TrEMBL record:
<dbReference type="Pfam" id="PF00205">
    <property type="entry name" value="TPP_enzyme_M"/>
</dbReference>
<dbReference type="InterPro" id="IPR012000">
    <property type="entry name" value="Thiamin_PyroP_enz_cen_dom"/>
</dbReference>
<protein>
    <submittedName>
        <fullName>Acetolactate synthase</fullName>
    </submittedName>
</protein>
<dbReference type="InterPro" id="IPR029061">
    <property type="entry name" value="THDP-binding"/>
</dbReference>
<dbReference type="InterPro" id="IPR012001">
    <property type="entry name" value="Thiamin_PyroP_enz_TPP-bd_dom"/>
</dbReference>
<feature type="domain" description="Thiamine pyrophosphate enzyme N-terminal TPP-binding">
    <location>
        <begin position="1"/>
        <end position="124"/>
    </location>
</feature>
<dbReference type="Pfam" id="PF02775">
    <property type="entry name" value="TPP_enzyme_C"/>
</dbReference>
<dbReference type="Pfam" id="PF02776">
    <property type="entry name" value="TPP_enzyme_N"/>
</dbReference>
<feature type="domain" description="Thiamine pyrophosphate enzyme central">
    <location>
        <begin position="199"/>
        <end position="335"/>
    </location>
</feature>
<comment type="similarity">
    <text>Belongs to the TPP enzyme family.</text>
</comment>
<feature type="domain" description="Thiamine pyrophosphate enzyme TPP-binding">
    <location>
        <begin position="395"/>
        <end position="546"/>
    </location>
</feature>
<keyword id="KW-0786">Thiamine pyrophosphate</keyword>
<dbReference type="InterPro" id="IPR029035">
    <property type="entry name" value="DHS-like_NAD/FAD-binding_dom"/>
</dbReference>
<dbReference type="InterPro" id="IPR011766">
    <property type="entry name" value="TPP_enzyme_TPP-bd"/>
</dbReference>
<dbReference type="InterPro" id="IPR045229">
    <property type="entry name" value="TPP_enz"/>
</dbReference>
Length: 592
């Protein structure tokens, strides 16, 4: 049996319906074996970066499968790295296959830079951002490498893997029945430790707590533990706050939803954590965007239970009161069984959380009801029109924060961003991957005018496949989050961030139409709802150029060194003090 047929059959066996690729000389033999296959398809992108990002988006939607990208050696392989980084930092399993020169053209250990054309040591380049990267050492070992790659990608803390396959191996025949199979090593995944003890200690803390809160991160979604999270919140009568990577792990229309937290979080969410006496953080690494740089100011009076699949993440920034190295689903399931009725919170605490959410809505008052279209208006109107099975991929920069602050995932709506790597241009190809992984609903990319120019070439991909995908370009004629940073800390010196010298935007409508994609422009509040409705109703690809106020900032925002619960622009000092159940930090010690 041919090695390339074995590769394709293996992918079919992993429930892979589409692979994302760009062709090249060193993968041509492998790709030739896709010809005539009806059990698997492929999507040719216009840049390999889009292939690895699409694979990332595909994997987020299809936990029963795995996202796959394929690229040729040299520049094709190196172009995959940014998308691979997205999967690495956000713990997304994905498989990346690269072609390599024939083994007789390999430089091996010779002290030369290159022998074969486009020869590249992609394995060593990829190792820091993959769980495993390797070059297949013999054609008869192909199945062993494939089986190990997927096992490693999905076990423990998930992540990307890469296999480099020499071109001569791809066209070789082997005896399939005699191929060796991979048997997982006992130490391939560090076993969970202290689960039962951690559950018992957490249950004991819950029995004493009056104001507990659950903080859910991306590990809850990745661990397919959203149902257990909801049941626990309802059983405890406790609020659930969400990190950016966990933003769709709990329905935002649920009465126990406490809000999005962190530097750019909702005021209500940050007030909830600040005033709690117990935080159960599940699947969240509690990075500085969530706690602030000074962890001593974060939820100062709360006991902290930290649950993570990766033991290296626990205690990396502060020492929790209870550390549990475990899968999120195992922990939540065990805690559900361990807690009794005595752990249920009084209604007073949850009512206070709801009051904060109502008092401090996502759209700041100064941005509501204005005559100039601003991104808060847009995000709110889009959120209202989302269907129950829609998928929203957010890019990076201000558009990412506005979307996370305002859009409310509910029912089966999926929403995420590449939170750890956070590259410009990610959301467009990620939405392509999601669109092809999910039959129901519509795929939506929310992206800035800067990010759109990174992967604008993929308009050709969505046009060719006639995908039901809407790209909303939040166009503020600049790199807005950098401009805001320059305003806050660099004396408003807008180097390389705004027009005319540092940044300009093209006519996105004209570009989309040139690719054969339906396009429209929204520039004032009067046409906002109708424009969104028209784009979402279109049976095919659409680009919408949403021209927003160029001066609109992301607010609220916790400034560096300040406590998360007192974000800028500051509310009245007495009003802030009235919200604090616990002893607050003196505002005079940090307010400007």
């Amino acid at each position: 049996m041919n090695v390339s047929d074995i590769i394709i059959d293996f992918l079919v066996g992993q429930n892979v319906s589409k692979v994302f690729l760009m062709t090249g000389g060193h993968v041509a033999f492998m790709l030739d074996h896709l010809y005539g296959r009806e059990d698997i398809g492929y999507v040719c992108v216009s840049h390999e970066q889009a292939a690895s990002m699409a694979a990332d988006g595909y994997s987020r939607i299809r936990p029963d499968s795995i996202g796959v990208s394929i690229a040729t050696s040299g520049p094709g392989a190196t172009n995959l790295l940014t998308g691979i980084g997205c999967s690495w930092f956000d713990s997304i399993p994905s498989l990346h296959l690269t072609g390599q020169v024939n083994t007789n053209e390999s430089k091996g250990d010779k002290p030369v830079r290159q022998i074969g054309f486009q020869e590249m040591d992609i394995v060593d380049m990829a190792k820091p951002i993959t769980k495993w990267a390797a070059t297949v050492d013999a054609p008869e070992n192909i199945l062993w490498y494939l089986e190990k790659a997927v096992h490693v990608a999905k076990s423990g803390r998930p992540g990307p893997v890469l296999l480099d396959i020499p071109m001569n191996f791809q066209r070789q025949d082997v005896d399939f029945d005699s191929l060796p199979h991979y048997v997982p090593e006992e130490d391939a995944v560090a076993p969970a430790s202290g689960l039962e003890r951690g559950i018992a200690e957490c249950a004991a803390l819950l029995a004493k707590a009056e104001r507990p809160a659950i903080l859910a991160g991306g590990g809850v979604r990745n661990g397919q533990a959203t149902a257990e999270l909801r049941r626990l919140a309802e059983k405890l009568n406790a609020p659930v706050c969400l990190s950016m990577n966990g933003i769709d792990a709990f329905p935002h229309d649920h009465p126990n939803y406490g809000g999005f937290i962190g530097v750019y979080g909702n005021r209500g969410g940050n007030l909830t954590l600040a005033n709690s006496d117990l935080i159960i953080a599940v699947g969240s690494r509690l990075d500085s965007r969530q706690t602030g740089v000074d962890t001593g100011k974060f939820a100062r009076f709360a006991k902290k239970v930290v649950v993570d699949i990766d033991p290296g993440e626990i205690g990396s920034r502060f020492t929790p009161d209870v550390a549990v190295h475990a899968d999120s689903k195992d922990f939540l399931t065990g805690l559900l069984d361990a807690v009794g009725d005595g752990c249920r919170c009084a209604d007073e605490w949850l009512n206070r959380v709801r009051q904060w959410r109502e008092a401090y809505p996502p759209c700041p008052p100064q941005y509501c009801g204005t005559e100039v279209l601003n991104p808060y208006m847009f995000m709110g109107a889009l959120s209202e029109q989302l269907g129950p099975d829609d998928t929203v991929a957010l890019d990076t920069g201000q558009n990412m924060v506005w979307g996370t602050q305002v859009i409310h995932p509910r029912q089966n709506i999926r929403m995420w961003t590449a939170g750890g790597m956070s590259p410009m241009g990610y959301s467009f190809p990620a939405a392509i991957g999601a669109r092809l992984a999910r039959e129901k609903g519509r795929a939506i990319s929310i992206i800035g005018d800067g990010g759109m120019q990174i992967n604008v070439q993929e308009l050709e991909t969505i046009a060719r496949h006639n995908l039901a995908l809407t790209v909303f370009v939040v166009n503020n004629s600049g790199l807005g989050l950098i401009r805001q940073f320059q305003d806050d800390y660099l004396g408003s010196r807008h180097v390389a961030a705004t027009e005319p010298q540092g940044f300009t935007s093209p006519d996105f409508v004209a570009i989309a139409e040139a690719y054969g994609v339906k396009a429209l422009r929204i520039s004032d509040p009067a046409g906002l709802e109708a424009g969104i409705r028209e784009s979402l109703a279109h049976d095919g690809p659409v680009l919408v150029d949403v021209q927003v106020d160029t001066t609109c900032n992301v607010i609220p925002k916790a400034l560096m060194g300040h406590p998360m619960e007192d974000q800028f622009p500051y509310i009245d000092e007495q009003e802030f003090l009235d919200q604090m159940i616990v002893e607050p930090l003196d505002p005079a010690s940090y307010r400007l």
